[in-house]
Amino acid sequence: MNRPTDTARFEAVALPHLPAAYNLARWLCRNEQDSHDLVQESVLRAFRFFDSFRGDNARAWLLAIVRNTFYTIQREARPHAADLGFDEELHDPSATLFADEGLDLNPEALLARKDLRERVNEALRQLPCAFREVVVLKEIEGLSYKEIAAIAGIPLGTVMSRLARGRKLLAASLGPGSTGATSDAMPRHPGAAERLH
């Protein structure tokens, strides 16, 4: 690899997608420090293998590396664990992931919206990782089914199945009448990832 040229190309192609990479890492890891470590490791791997990048979708490519790095680290750390367990430490009510978007609403509506966001965040954090990653990639990052299939390395039908099950689990966790409200409480791409930090 021609380092100066490739470094500049890597910075131009891959680094603009760091907010999305961090967003996915945060939802996978469910804590700040591990998310930073995961993104750092993923970017190092992405740079190391940048010669192999031939596509035109650097965002999906980087997110796939983040996802694969996460599962590699999980397998190495806990070879018999399929998923992270529920972590009480991560459910700090002060760590709201979805920031208010500056909507001009009355205090009661703002409070209700904040409460809903916290409930959605909590429900999303509790989803099994396989469902959580698909919901995050679709609902927050706004990726297509095809892109998610490529990132997760699963068939298109599995993406749709996991998304449907993830949505049902979210709705069940939030209670009756929450389906429409749940989707309203989730930030959408573009710019969704930036609002989570």
Quick rundown:
This protein has about 200 residues and is mainly alpha-helical. Helices cover about 65% and strands about 0% of the residues.
Salient structural properties:
RNA_pol_sigma70_r2, DNA binding, sigma factor activity, transcription regulation, disordered C terminus, 197 residues, mainly alpha, RNA_pol_sigma-70-like
Structural notes for this entry:
By secondary structure, this protein is an all-alpha fold. The chain has helices at 3-13, 18-29, 32-48, 58-77, 107-126, 129-140, 145-152, 156-174, 179-185, 192-195. α4 (58-77) packs parallel to α7. InterPro entries: RNA_pol_sigma-70-like, RNA_pol_sigma-70_dom, RNA_pol_sigma70_r2, RNA_pol_sigma70_r4_t2, RNA_pol_sigma_r2, RNA_pol_sigma_r3/r4-like, WH-like_DNA-bd_sf. Residues 118-170 form the RNA polymerase sigma factor 70 region 4 type domain. Pfam families: Sigma70_r2, Sigma70_r4_2.
